[in-house]
Predict the 3D structure of the following.
Amino acid sequence: MAGPLTVIKYPFQQLYRALPRAVWVACVLLILTPLAHSQPGELESQLDALAAEREMLTGELDQYKATVSLLQTDGAPPEQSSNPAVRKLALEMVRIRERLVAVTEREVTLLQEQITAARQLAQAAENQTHASTAMESKPLRTITPNYSLVSEEEHVRRLHALLADYYAELQESARTLPSAEEIAERAAAQLDAQKLARIPFSADKVRLNGAEGSTALSQITRRLSDPSIPESRRDIAPICGIRTQFFGSLIASERRSLRPIGKNHYVARVRLQPGDTTLRIKEHRWELQLPQNVNAGDFLITLYTPPGSPPELHLFAVDELLAEKDPHIPAWLPDEVKLKSRSG
């Protein structure tokens, strides 16, 4: 009867020294070859499908560009067009570019993996010079009869150049167009603004009470949701200089950036001291006076700069706004404003 099975533990380094070089290289090739040639037909199909989708999307993008050039004749970027149809086309072009980025990145990844595997096989084949039996290998891709690493690497470089163009175009659009999340926030705010009774006040009035502040925010919501009003660049933040004097002495001075929220609107939350306050933005100036017997408080500044018209600046106390019954607290307000209804 045969004895018990004995398990021999052979350290890896000793195994490497014990095996002849030809056998060792052959083992390496046996390991690498299935990895490199695993489902070559499937890999080829994936690359062909990605290339076809990229060409189709590129064709669609070219058609959109041609349509925009017919509709937008003043040379302005389509994202800032006063024509709602052109801005809608600009949004569609953004979605196509986003899909082009995803498809091209996947195509580049597969090609780079393929090039790496081809190099590994080529290196292993070189090391098999002393092997007793030569192993034959076929190219990973068979687009052309003679597979060329040089041509594949050049193809990857071209795809990287395309990606750089897509990224630049998306970045330029993002400076003007709102994101999908911001569009949803505007729509949610519009539903609330429609329920709010309109309280008229003069556009020249600087300091508003809580009810007027709520109305001012609802007016901004309506403009943001109005498709006839063009978008504006959102990478420009106006600087507001704020100086407060108390009994003739300067007690506070600062410069604040106003946050762009779209369609030439800007907001900021500031803390003001009692006394006479002057606000300056470029050549424009506004004055307001806070009672001397009140404490410092947080205020919301809203600025509207319609093209061709004087800017409108309003300022109202956060506490007064929140004290109103069902104030309009729009979803589009930036997080740093930290403004929520007290009921929420």
In short: Strands lie at 207-208, 239-246, 249-257, 259-262, 265-272, 275-281, 284-290, 297-304, 312-317. The longest strand covers residues 249-257. Residues 39 and 45 are 10 Å apart (CA to CA). Helices lie at 12-18, 21-36, 40-71, 84-126, 149-174, 180-195, 210-225, 318-323.
